[in-house]
Amino acid sequence: MSAIELHDVVKSFGSVRALDGLTLSVDRGEVHGFLGPNGAGKSTTMRVLLGLLKPDVGTARLLDGDPWGQAPELHRRIAYVPGDVTLWPNLTGGEVVDMLGRMRGGLDERRRTSMLERFELDPTKKARTYSKGNRQKVALVAALASRAELYLFDEPTSGLDPLMEAEFQRSVTELKREGVTVLLSSHILAEAEALSDRISIIRAGRVAQTGTLDELRHLTRTTVTVQTTRPADGVGDLPGVHDVRSHDGRATFDVDSDRLDAVLAHLAGLGVQSLTAHPPTLEELFLRHYGEQVTA
Amino acid sequence: MTRPATGTVTGSFAGTRHLLRLILRRDRVRLPLWLLGLGGMITSSALAVPTVYDTPAKVAGYASAVGTSPVSYLMSGRQAGIDTLGGIVANEVSQVAQLGICLMVMFLVVRHTRAEEESGRAELLRSTVVGRHAATLAGLVHGVTAALLVGLLTTAAMLSVGLDTLGSATYGLGLALLGLCYAAVTLVAAQLSASARGALGLTGAAIAAGYLVRGVGAVQDNALVWASPFGWAQRMDAFGAERAWPVLPLLALTAALLGLAALLTAHRDFAGGLLQPRPGRARASRALGTPVGLAFRQQRGLVVGWAAGLAALGLVYGAVLPTIPDLVESNPDIASVIGATGDVEQALVDAFLRYVFVFMAVVSTGFAVASVLRLRAEEESGRAELLLSTGLSRTRWVSATVSVTAFGVLAIATSTGLGLGVGYALGSGRWDRVASQVAGQLSYTPAVLLVGAVAFALAGMLPRWSAAAWAVIAFVFFQVLLGGTVRLPDWVDAASPFWHLSQVPVDAFAPAPLLVEVAVAATLVLLGTWGFRRRAVVPG
Hints:
The structure holds 2 protein chains of 2 kinds. The two termini of chain A are 39 Å apart. Chain A has 2 domains: 216 residues, P-loop containing nucleotide triphosphate hydrolases (Rossmann fold); 58 residues, ACT domain (Alpha-Beta Plaits). Chain A contains 10 helices and 13 strands. Chain A is of the alpha/beta class. Chain B has 2 domains: 259 residues, no CATH class; 254 residues, no CATH class. Chain B is 73% helix and 0% strand. Chain B is built from 24 helices and no strands.
């Protein structure tokens, strides 16, 4: 049973093909990460799912319905947070939350209160006085305070500070426990990694890869910078280590995520003075795996 | 050590030239359209006058009746040299030219000052080398340039029909200075209000006030004309005994307003106004949870503002009605000119009322179009996307706005009619006539609704062209205010919905055209709704 089923969807705006044969399937009860760089077609996909755009070619199904033809009925069962939130300047945050909740067909009072607290949102302020992050929070509270079967989040944490980002992750984890479906678009790999059961990677209007985190593990490498008491020259010979660069007694290299353990054990023997590690950014990942195709 | 770059403007006007270049780039279509539209209307009526008044007898007839009727005084003031062709041309174009130039500078100046600041785009600009007063100065230069060009076009049009050089130049100069004065008014309003709509509202009220004060002063022939910039521009007496000194109060007021605007700019925060935002309700009222509730909440300020403004205008016009008998006594020729048989006074009152009804109705098409086009603003801002992601269907979303527009049009007409009726009753004691003024004003609403429906159909079917609805308003204004002078062919007249309605109270009320127009409007609404249902609704 799929919550979302897109098959070979094409959507063009003039000469630009925003979606170029996109196929995506999201199962019920899963948190699905939807990853792609800016301009890859994430928001266009969301708008097709919301019935705001009609695909030129291909089929779209949402909760076993037609997103274009049955939009209002389907929307009672979903909640959506746009990436760039614009609000009605003369309404307060509290009023917007209530209004959207009612139009969605009901609001959970207890969740409304707890979400307002969780996101530290003052509901009496007029929307025109909110910052970008606070407008984002209004849309998040409005979505999370309603009980939906499917949540569509389009880059929901853009503009949020790290504490609020953590609160958002906690909220999604709670949703996951309730068994609802979440489609989470992001250009931050770590965010999708932390929350998703499965991930689809979109590039230039097509899904390039889809799978569980383990299945995609070969795509992810961790970049490590280490300073050791004894020279770390031998690290390049270990399996799964790539691109070793040395400078000022430090070594920087990339490690396949499934080889990380063995590499760290080796480094420990050399006397680690300092170590930083960060997961690859989405752009690095694309450069690594699709670089040839992109330049070709 | 730092060293000031040579040749750069520093201080609070830095960057003005860059801003001006940006403004000209952004308005490369809009500015020519204003100039063409306004200049075209003025030129076409200037060209028409000599063909209509082609004998000395006809010119004399105009001077003794049309140009000295209370309607003309109220709408165009007391024009000098009304017994010459120049005076007639000036009198015929003045309403469109004077109101047009004021509206033009208002829209242009707000667009490049407060609207930019509100949108946040100005913030990006202000982070570069742009001084505090640069945006104000650039907006002023832009508006004043446009006003000067319209003044020049007007002078050129008048010269082209062989009018007196000094008179034509004086008229054009007075017009441009009126524009300059209201550009300064707009700049002050843009400092006071934190929103572009608020700035437009304040300026619109100031234009209406100046126009009304001059009109009432002209009807009563007293010093009130000297309390309005419209009066100063007119008292330069183009085509009469031209005089230059009324330029002084125009320039003095402009300078004072510019000083005030600069003072306000220097003492306020960026994006701030004079009013601090107050906390609002933490919970939504029961009404806000239906699309109609939201649409009404969005537009209640607009409806109340228009209703109050036109009611005030109606009150003044109504109060002028009882003074008409005096004018008949002083000018017995009037009866023959308007072709009245029998009760001349009543015929004059009726003619006056018809004119006011139509004028008010045409003005209120501005509300209808602005109200309907909020849908496009909702769509382009992305707010519609958020709404339509809830259980709201597109049909309910658009029909909520359409209902609020229709309600607003009827409410505005009712309050306008009430204002007229009460104003008349205050002077004459005829309280029994109040209801008939309300009914008279309401009888013109189908045409207003029809213009709104055209805007809606455009927004639904041809969203990129929805701004063309403003051209429909310009055409309707032209047909109603100048159609008689220019003598448009019938098929052009027939394109205006106001032309088909029975001209109450001069003609007896006939329901047929009203019903037909309502039916056409309903069809257009259906078409527009169909358009909204089938096309993509996405942020622009």
